[in-house]
Amino acid sequence: MKDAVRQVEDGVILELDISAGSKETAIKGYNPWRKRIEIRLSERAQKGKANAELMSFLSDLFKVHSRNVELISGSTNSKKSVKIIQAQAEDILKILTNENK
Question: What is the mean pLDDT of residues 91-97?
Fold first, then answer.
């Protein structure tokens, strides 16, 4: 999972693989071939609803304000890059590994 979490100057970038329209919103696991964290969202990928749910889910998961969660790339793609502003990679990894148990 470490490959999908990268520390940058102003925060942490997460490489994600999103499945929209699932039964529940949750972290599914880690894909070692794609080097991405897999997340399922209950919202369908229509009119930005899934992206909004993703931002809200990550904000709650990492206990940061929603304005500190920024979609960097992949707004219309299942492969997304998200930045958690003012976060530390080791803290993010701890939360992700606990969530994935």
Answer: 94
